[in-house]
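Revision sheet: structure tokens.
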Amino acid sequence: MNRPVNVVRGTVAAAFAALLTGLLTAPPVQAAPGPRTLYAAPDGRGSTCTAARPCTPEGARDLARTETGRDVRVLLRNGTYELDEPLVLGAADSGGNGRTVTWTAAPGARPVLSGGRDITGWRQNTDGTWTADAPAGVTPRQLFVDGRRATRARGGACAASTCDATRTGMTGATATGIATWQRPTDAEAVIRIRWRNYHCRITGVDGDAMTFARPCWTNSASGTDRTGPSWDSTTVDSARYSGVAFFENAPELLDEPGEFVWNSEARTVTYLPRPGENMRRARAVTPHTEQLLLVDGAHDITVSGIGFAYAAYRQPGTDEGYAGTQAGLTLTGATGPVDHAGRFYTKPAAAVTVRGGRNIDIDNARFDRLGGAGAILEAGTRDSSLTRSSFTDLSSGAVYVGDTEPMPGPELAGERNTVAYNTISRTGVEYTDSVGIWAGYEAELTIDHNSLDRLPYSGISVGWGWNQPEAQKSVLRDNEVTNNRITDVMQVAQEQHDGGAIYTQGAQPGTVISGNYINRSAFGNTERDGNGIYLDEQSSHILVEKNVVTRVGYKWISNWADYGIRNTARGNWTDTAAPALGGTGSVMTDNRTGLDRLPAEALAVAGRAGARGGPVEQLRTDLARTGTATQSSTEGAAGPALALDADTTTDTRTRSETGARWQVDLGDERRVRRIEIWNDASATTADFDVVTDDGTIHVSGKALRPTVLDLDSRTRMVKIVTSGTGRVALSQVLVHP
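Predicted:
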């Protein structure tokens, strides 16, 4: 039924009048409160946390908890915040529901949370050393003088023939002089075996025999049934053991400037200064507080522009010691469950730990001069990030993400975390088995545009489990390792082997390794070891695409295990070759291998990689590639041309004979500036001459992978000749103009 027009108009007019009346009589709308800014300072004592009366960080945190309806910013004034315990941010300190909580540096400030303690009152000794008392309760394991790391006094290596290790201890106390040391029980043995590292303290000396702290020594030896598959082959009492890298922390070893020693009985530190250091004026700091920032069960917090320094790692100084397993994790406890998949290993202490965090963002932080690791994101942390931060001079690794349980409960699963645009250098200074970035069982993890340089072992490690039954099904999936710059890792001097610039374990469908620039991984190695991209053990369902991999000690890509399946390597650029990938369904396609010059597209990919991009080390033209190789004799099928095939996994070999020789005819006289000699798989070639038409260069000891000789010669022939009786066996010889 249609109503009359005048009725409709009257209804609308009445409604409008009612609305107008309501608007005129309604209370005014309250504007949302503005953000609350709180101030903290190293000397903060106030309770209002204003610019005029700043608080301590703890005071600012407690006041921030009272602000529930608006954003909160805590500004840290410039200076060093010396902490006896970590700053803890929990659930009550969270943001969320559109509200933000930010902890950041005040404008122009560079605040540092420090776990260090000053060591003062230095007195000079007649031998040129200086001694000071340690503060009460402080046990110096590291010492930094004017910000520069000192070295615990150390001696030379002790071969296994002298320092013979067994499950109960070690011989060698007499030959090393340890039997006559004043305090041998303050000293430690540092041992490196393959990818593992051990630091155990001496507990007793009886004649030539030494015993060591337990459970450190027990966990470093065979028979625990608590480590990975066949890992008893890499324990201190295994056939792989070649001796002690060095003993450290004894006054009898204090003979190099920059070394120090700790006396636990007198509670003193003795230091031999470097040239120019004056201990009356120098600042000496030792790490004491382990954690500096603990974010536990919190969400929606940003931490930005804050430095973290002098955090300690106390476990290695206890009877637990440091029984390394892999990547900086250790075996601890006198007993434990039988386990071969690394589920119960212990991560190092870190300056920053995020446990069970949600939307925690750490940005533009500085981690340096640490006794342990940089940052850990664990226990179900997700949707969190660590970005644009720097890590340098750390005793352990830089970043640890995730945990070692393959099938965690929903609340403990790590997902969608990001580690990006960070710079990492000179980590693993003490614990050389640690890695730059480690991730356990993570899903949708992004490791992108990081720069990693000068690391003792692997650069980036993702995955865990070694194909053990309990690890074959896991939450690993859809991880991205992209656009990272990884240079000078697997450092030969640190004697850590069986790793790679990028290292993976476990089936992780959807995982991509792409756009990375890897240069000099295990370059100059003593054996055929050290990879570019290492798809180890059960690594499966991984795509390796458009990476630039140059100058690696062994394979540019390695996937040796038959149970690592359905991996794909395509469209990569490299200067060497590698065998086909192992495992069902694994393929290599469209890779540019054996290059002696990087093409423009590869240079562009490499140049963009890393936190800020950077220079790319172009390959050198190889004159030998088109030459003709011959040798004095041939053992089996190991012919001379295998040194010219641009493949460091194939080897030549002569018979053992006087004056054994390999040579290459370049076809014409050429000007030569550099020769690279890559030893064979068994490091056979040793004590040899490199002969050109202009002269001879003698190389003592074994050739490396490679031995690099710089020269200025005009020559047609390059010869490698043994000085006495032996073989010449080579994987590659490069001759550069």
